[in-house]
C-alpha cells in the first residue's frame, strides 16, 4: 500500500499509534510540523486525511464517509484492530514476557520476548517526518533495547550464552554508550569461554566512555572486568558466592544485570522540594486529577510521566505544583530534585538546559571533573544516574519545551513543572499532561485572604468580598493584600481598603517591601518582554481597546497586518496567557491584564497609536 508523501505518512503514523482514539487537528498539526507551523497547516491536515482515505479504502467514493478513518469531535480516528499495529503487539508481547519472568516461567518469558523482537524489521517510523515520529523512533528504540537486555539476561540464565552474543553484538553497535548491554555482552562472551574477547570489550568501553563522556566505567563493569581477569564466576552482585567453585565458561544462573548506580544510593537521598507557601487552600479536585498520572505505574516501564501546569501570572502555579509534588512524594522513595529554571525571570536570566543539568548533576554528587562539557553528554549521564530509580523532579518556571525536554529522566521517575505558556509540543512528542490552572473560586479566595490577614477581616464579610473581587481570584494579589492588612494595624480598615483598591488598580503592590517578586507588574512584564517583536507590538496596540472583545479583523486593522497573520499572533498571545479566547476568533483580557495592557499602550509612539485607531475606525465605518 502506498500511503503518499512524507507528511501524509506522518499523519497516518500518529493515528495508527493511537488506534481508535480521536486525535484533534491541533495535535496532528503539532505532531507533523512542530514549532514551524505554516498558516495552511489545518488545510494540509484535511488534504492528507483525504489522501489516506483514498489509499486505505480505494473503492469508497468521495461522497461516502470512511469506515476506517473517521471524522469526529474536532479530529480524526483510525478504526482498526490494535493487533494490526506492530508497535502495540510488540508492547503486549513485552509485557507478557515480563509477567512470565516475574512468576519464574523462564521458557514462556523467552518465547514472548522472541515474539516481540521478531516484529522488528528495520528502524521504526523510518522516513517519516515531524516531531511525533522522531519521539516515537526514540521511544521504540529504547523499548526494543530494553527488551533485548531482558531477553539476553534470560538467555544467560537458561545457559544459552552463544545465542545471546550475536544479538548483543548488534545491539551494542547501535547503542555503544549503554553500559548494561556491554555488561551482558562481556558476561555472555566469558561464559562462552571467550575470555580475551570479553576483556577487549571492556577496554573498548573504557576508551569510549572517557572520550565521549569523560567518565570511567561503572563499578559493576569494573568488578566484572576483575572477575574475568581472575577467572572468577560472575554473579549479578559482581562477586562469587561463598564456597562456589565453577569452571570458566560453565553456565551460571544470573539474576537481572546491574544498571548505573546512583551516587545518592550510598548517601542521603535528595530532598530539595521547598515548602508550600502558608495558607494554601482548595484545588482538591485538580490535585487529585494530576496525582493519578504521576503515580500510576506504566506496565511497559518505558514512559516517564510529565505534568506541565500552565496559567497566567499570579495564579499560583508554583504553590500548586509544590503542593502536588509533596502529596505524591511518598511514591518516589529515591528523593526529590528541584530546579528553578527562571524562564520568565528578569533578574539573572533563564537557565538553559545545559546549565540546569550541571546544577542537578552536582546535587546528585557528581564531581565537576566528571561532568561532561556538552549538553547531550550531560543529559545522557543524568538519565544513567536516575536509571532504575523513582525520583520526583520539579522544574519551576519553564520557558520552552526545549528547556525542559533534556531534564526528563527515563523509567519510573516523574516530572512536575510549571510554565507561563502552553507547551503543546510536549504533549505530542513526550506525552506530557498539560493542565491550565485557573484563578481561585470565591470561597477559596476568601479562605486564603482570611488565613493570611489575621483578625483584620473578622466579621468583615463585605470588605473581604470586595478585596477578593479586586484580586480576580489570583493568589499573588490576595497575598499582597493580606500583607498590607497585617502590616498596617494602626490604619483604619476602611481607609486601608480604599488605598489597596487605588494601588491595586495601578498594578502596584500596596506593601512590597522592596521585593519585586510581590509586584503584579513584575510577572506581567516578564511575559511581555518574552514576546516576539510583532506580538509585543500587537499587545501594546490592543491595550488601546482593552475594555472590549477583540476579533481577528479588529486586531488586523489595529496593527495593519493581514487577518491570517493577526489570527496567528492572537493565538500566540493566548498561549502565553496574555489573552483569553472567549469564543471562536474572539479574545479578551483578564481584568488585571487589561490594566497592564492599557499601560503598555503608552509605550507605543503617539503617531503609531493615532494611526492604529484611525485604521480601526475607518474599517468599522466601512462595515457599517
Description:
- It is a single chain.
- This protein has 26 helices and eleven strands.
- With 624 residues, it is α/β, with parallel strands linked by helices.
- The strands form three sheets. It has a five-stranded parallel sheet, with helices on both faces. It has a three-stranded antiparallel sheet with strand order 1-3-2. A three-stranded antiparallel sheet has the order 9-11-10.
- Strand 10 and strand 11 form a beta hairpin.
- About 7% of the residues have low confidence.
Question: In brief, what are we looking at here?
Answer:
The longest helix is centred in the N-terminal third of the chain and has 27 residues, at 131-157.
Strand order of the largest sheet: 5-6-7-4-8
Helix percentage range: 40-55%
Shape: globular
User: End-to-end distance, in Å?
Assistant: 55 Å
List low-pLDDT spans: 236-268, 508-518
Mean pLDDT: 78
Q: Radius of gyration, Cα only, in angstroms? A: 29 Å
Count of discrete alpha- or pi-helical segments spanning 4 or more residues: 26
Q: Can you count the beta strands?
A: 11
Largest sheet: 5 strands, parallel
Summing up helix and strand content along with how strands pair, one would put the structural category as: alpha/beta
> How much beta, percentage-wise?
5-15%
Amino acid at each position: 500500500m502506498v500511503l503518499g508523501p512524507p507528511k501524509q505518512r506522518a499523519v497516518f503514523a500518529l493515528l495508527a499509534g493511537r488506534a481508535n482514539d480521536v486525535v484533534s487537528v491541533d495535535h496532528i498539526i503539532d505532531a507533523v510540523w512542530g514549532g514551524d507551523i505554516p498558516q495552511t497547516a489545518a488545510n494540509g491536515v484535511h488534504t492528507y486525511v483525504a489522501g489516506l482515505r483514498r489509499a486505505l479504502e480505494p473503492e469508497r467514493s468521495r461522497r461516502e464517509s470512511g469506515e476506517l478513518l473517521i471524522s469526529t469531535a474536532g479530529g480524526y480516528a483510525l478504526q482498526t484492530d490494535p493487533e494490526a499495529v506492530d508497535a502495540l503487539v510488540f508492547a503486549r508481547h513485552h509485557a507478557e514476557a515480563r509477567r512470565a519472568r516475574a512468576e519464574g516461567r523462564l521458557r514462556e518469558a523467552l518465547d514472548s520476548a522472541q515474539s516481540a523482537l521478531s516484529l522488528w524489521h528495520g528502524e521504526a517510523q523510518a522516513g517519516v517526518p515531524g516531531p511525533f515520529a522522531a519521539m516515537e523512533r526514540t521511544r521504540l528504540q529504547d523499548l526494543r533495547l530494553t527488551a533485548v537486555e531482558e531477553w539476553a539476561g534470560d538467555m544467560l540464565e537458561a545457559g544459552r550464552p552463544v545465542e545471546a552474543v550475536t544479538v548483543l553484538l548488534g545491539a551494542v553497535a547501535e547503542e555503544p554508550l549503554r553500559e548494561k548491554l556491554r555488561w551482558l555482552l562481556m558476561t555472555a562472551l566469558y561464559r562462552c569461554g571467550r575470555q580475551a574477547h570479553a576483556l577487549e570489550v571492556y577496554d573498548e568501553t573504557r576508551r569510549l566512555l572517557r572520550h565521549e563522556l569523560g567518565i570511567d566505567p561503572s563499578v559493576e563493569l569494573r568488578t566484572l572486568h576483575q572477575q574475568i581477569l581472575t577467572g572468577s564466576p560472575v554473579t549479578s552482585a559482581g562477586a562469587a558466592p561463598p564456597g562456589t567453585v565453577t569452571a570458566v565458561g560453565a553456565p551460571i544462573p544470573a539474576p537481572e544485570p546491574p544498571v548505573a548506580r546512583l551516587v545518592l544510593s550510598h548517601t542521603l537521598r535528595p530532598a530539595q522540594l521547598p515548602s508550600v507557601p502558608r495558607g494554601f487552600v482548595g484545588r482538591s479536585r485538580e490535585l487529585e486529577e494530576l496525582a493519578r498520572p504521576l503515580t500510576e505505574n506504566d506496565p511497559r516501564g518505558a514512559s516517564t510521566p510529565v505534568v506541565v501546569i500552565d496559567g497566567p501570572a499570579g495564579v499560583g502555579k508554583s504553590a500548586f505544583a509544590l503542593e502536588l509534588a509533596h502529596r505524591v512524594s511518598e511514591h518516589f522513595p529515591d528523593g526529590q530534585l528541584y530546579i528553578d529554571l527562571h524562564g520568565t525571570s528578569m533578574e539573572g536570566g533563564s537557565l538553559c538546559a545545559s546549565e540546569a543539568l550541571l546544577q542537578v548533576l552536582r546535587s546528585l554528587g557528581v564531581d565537576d571533573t566528571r561532568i561532561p562539557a556538552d549538553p547531550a553528554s550531560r543529559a545522557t549521564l543524568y538519565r544513567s544516574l536516575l536509571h532504575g530509580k523513582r525520583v520526583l523532579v520539579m522544574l519551576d518556571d519553564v520557558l520552552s519545551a526545549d528547556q525542559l525536554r533534556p531534564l526528563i529522566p527515563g523509567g519510573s521517575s516523574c516530572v512536575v513543572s510549571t510554565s507561563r505558556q502552553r507547551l503543546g509540543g510536549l504533549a505530542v512528542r513526550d506525552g506530557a499532561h498539560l493542565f491550565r490552572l485557573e484563578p481561585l473560586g470565591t470561597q477559596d479566595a476568601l479562605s486564603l485572604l482570611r488565613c493570611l490577614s489575621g483578625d483584620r477581616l473578622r466579621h468583615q464579610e463585605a470588605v473581604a468580598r470586595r478585596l477578593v473581587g479586586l484580586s480576580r481570584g489570583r493568589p499573588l494579589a490576595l497575598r499582597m493584600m493580606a500583607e498590607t492588612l497585617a502590616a498596617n494595624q494602626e490604619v483604619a480598615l476602611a481607609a486601608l481598603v480604599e488605598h489597596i483598591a487605588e494601588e491595586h488598580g495601578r498594578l502596584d503592590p500596596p506593601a512590597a517591601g522592596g521585593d519585586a517578586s510581590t509586584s503584579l507588574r513584575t510577572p506581567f512584564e516578564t511575559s511581555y518582554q518574552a514576546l516576539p517583536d510583532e506580538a509585543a507590538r500587537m499587545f501594546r496596540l490592543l491595550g488601546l481597546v482593552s475594555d472590549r472583545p477583540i476579533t481577528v479583523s479588529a486586531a488586523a486593522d489595529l496593527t495593519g497586518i493581514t487577518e491570517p497573520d493577526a489570527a496567528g499572533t492572537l493565538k500566540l498571545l493566548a498561549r502565553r496567557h496574555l489573552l483569553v479566547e472567549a469564543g471562536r476568533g474572539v479574545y479578551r483580557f483578564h481584568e488585571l491584564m487589561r490594566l497592564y495592557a492599557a499601560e503598555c499602550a503608552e509605550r507605543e509612539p503617539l503617531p503609531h497609536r493615532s494611526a492604529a485607531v484611525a485604521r480601526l475606525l475607518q474599517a468599522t465605518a466601512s462595515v457599517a
